[in-house]
C-alpha cells in the first residue's frame, strides 16, 4: 500500500496540473474565456455562466488538497479518495486536450472513465463510516466530489452531443435533433431528482443539474428546447427546495445529526 503522504503530495501535484491546464485553455479561448463553451457548440449547450461551476469545483478542490493534511481527513483520503483523484485530474486534462483538438469520440470515452472514477469516490463517501464529521469534511471533501459528480454528467452530455449531433447554426434544429435534446433534458432532470430522492439529499449535485437546465433555457432559442429546459429546471428547483425542507425537519426532529461546528 502506498504511503499516505505520497498520495497526498501527488494529489497536490495533480490538482496544480489540472488547474494549470484549465487556466491555460481559458486564456487561449476567446469570448467567454471557456474552452468548454467556445468549442463544439450544439443545440444543448448551456449559456457561458453555467461553466462557473467548474471554477467553484476548482476552489473547493483547492481546499481539499490543503485539508487532506489534517488528521481528521486522513482516513477518507487514504481509504476512499486514494489514487482516484490523481486519475481523475489526469483524465480530465486528457479529455480537455481531446476536446480542443476535435477528437470527440475519444473525448466521450475518456469522460466515461472519469465518470467511473468520480462515481467510485462519490458513492463510497455516502457510506455511514465516511459521513462528514465536521464542516470541513462537508465543505472540502463531500461538496467538491458531489459537485464534480454532477458536473461530469453535464460534460458527458455535452461531449456526446458534440460527437454525434450537428453543430449549432443560425438555422433551427431538425426534428430528430429536437427529440434527442428533449430526451437528454429529461435525463438530466431525472438525475437532479435522483440526487434529492436517492436517500442522501445531495443538494449540491442537484443544484448543478438545475443550474445547467437554466443555462440551456437561456442559451437555446428553439421554442421546444427553450421552454422544456425552463419547465424541467423549475421542477428540479422544486425538488431542491423539498430536499432542503426535509433536511431542516430532520435536524429539528433529531433524526439528522447536524455537523459538528
In a nutshell, what does this entry contain?
By secondary structure, the chain is an all-alpha fold.
Q: How would you sum up the major sheet?
A: none
The helix content is: over 70%
Order of helices and strands: HHHHHHHHHH
**SS field, number of helical segments:** 10
Unreliably modeled segments: 256-261
**Average of pLDDT:** 88
Count of domains:
1
Notes on the protein architecture:
With 261 residues, the protein is mainly α. It is built from ten helices and no strands. Helix 5 runs antiparallel to helix 6 and helix 9 runs antiparallel to helix 10. The longest helix has 31 residues. The protein is globular, with a radius of gyration of 19 Å. It starts with a helix and ends in an 8-residue tail after the last helix.
Amino acid at each position: 500500500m502506498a504511503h499516505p503522504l505520497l498520495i497526498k503530495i501527488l494529489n497536490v501535484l495533480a490538482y496544480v496540473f489540472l488547474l494549470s491546464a484549465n487556466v491555460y485553455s481559458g486564456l487561449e479561448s476567446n469570448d467567454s474565456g471557456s474552452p468548454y463553451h467556445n468549442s463544439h457548440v450544439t443545440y444543448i449547450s448551456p449559456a457561458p455562466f453555467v461553466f462557473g461551476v467548474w471554477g467553484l469545483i476548482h476552489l473547493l478542490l483547492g481546499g481539499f488538497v490543503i485539508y487532506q493534511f489534517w488528521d481528521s481527513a486522513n482516513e477518507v483520503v487514504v481509504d476512499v479518495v486514494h489514487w482516484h483523484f490523481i486519475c481523475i485530474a489526469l483524465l480530465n486534462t486528457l479529455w480537455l486536450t481531446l476536446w480542443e483538438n476535435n477528437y470527440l469520440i475519444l473525448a466521450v470515452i475518456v469522460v466515461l472513465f472519469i465518470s467511473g472514477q468520480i462515481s467510485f469516490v462519490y458513492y463510497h463517501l455516502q457510506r455511514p463510516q465516511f459521513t462528514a464529521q465536521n464542516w470541513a469534511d462537508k465543505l472540502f471533501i463531500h461538496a467538491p466530489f458531489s459537485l464534480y459528480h454532477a458536473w461530469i454528467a453535464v460534460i458527458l452530455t455535452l461531449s456526446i452531443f458534440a460527437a454525434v449531433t450537428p453543430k449549432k447554426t443560425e438555422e433551427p434544429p431538425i426534428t430528430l435533433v429536437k427529440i434527442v435534446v428533449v430526451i437528454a433534458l429529461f435525463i438530466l432532470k431525472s438525475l437532479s431528482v435522483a440526487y434529492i430522492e436517492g436517500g442522501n439529499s445531495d443538494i449540491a449535485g442537484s443544484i448543478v443539474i438545475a443550474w445547467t437546465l437554466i443555462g440551456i433555457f437561456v442559451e437555446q432559442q428553439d421554442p421546444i428546447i427553450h421552454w422544456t429546459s425552463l419547465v424541467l429546471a423549475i421542477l428540479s428547483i422544486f425538488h431542491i427546495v423539498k430536499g432542503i425542507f426535509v433536511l431542516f425537519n430532520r435536524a429539528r426532529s433529531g433524526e439528522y445529526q447536524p455537523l459538528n461546528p
